[in-house]
Amino acid sequence: MSDSDGGGCCRCCCSFILTSGLTALFLWLSLRTSNPKCSIQNFYVPALNKTLNSTTNHTIFFDLKLDNTNKDKGVHYDAVNLTFYYGPNVSFLIGNYTVHGFYQGHGKNTHRKYLLDTRGVPWDEALKAVSNGSLAVFRVDLVTAVRFRIIGFKTKRHKLDLKANVEVDGTGDKLKKKKGIRLKSGAPELDCYHARVVLSVILSAFVLLL
What we know:
Number of strands: 12
Strand content: 35-45%
Main location: membrane
Subcellular location: Membrane
Transmembrane segments: 12-31
CATH class: Mainly Beta
Low-confidence stretches: 24-29
Order of helices and strands: HEEEEEEEHEEEEEH
Structural class: alpha+beta
CATH architecture: Sandwich
Radius of gyration: 25 Å
Protein name: Protein NDR1-like
Number of domains: 1
Number of helices: 3
Keywords: Membrane, Transmembrane, Transmembrane helix
């Protein structure tokens, strides 16, 4: 076999490996998914609005936003279970709410607004806090599972276990009135890490083949 034949074969092999790697990267980018973003857009506690002086109204109004940021993938939600607590921990359970499962199209967002009847809130303590210029803190936990619809088929279920603290002032509203409060998981974000690993492998292979 001549040197030119050997060189041509090597170039073909290198080209095949590089093409296969780029194809795998393209497929991975096409199939990778991002979990929905969940946030509390509004959170209003009438009993803590000092101007109303309504100590008998023990309801909480909240607006939950579920945002599918995937541009070409739909999301099937199982039942979305919300648990509300007074304080940043789970000492005072004050209410539950369940959003029935539903499908959300790609790039869509959904709002679920509800008036929650609470129980067990230490209202005297909360009202004293906001009257003194401090903040009353509530905690919202969200648990559900989602499946992604990609090119006509569904993925396996991905569990979401999220939480956020909501600070309420003397107006009865959450502190950041114009900005939603993102519910987040304590687990690390894996998508970005996986993306860096795959890209590093492809780039390393590309450099070696030059």
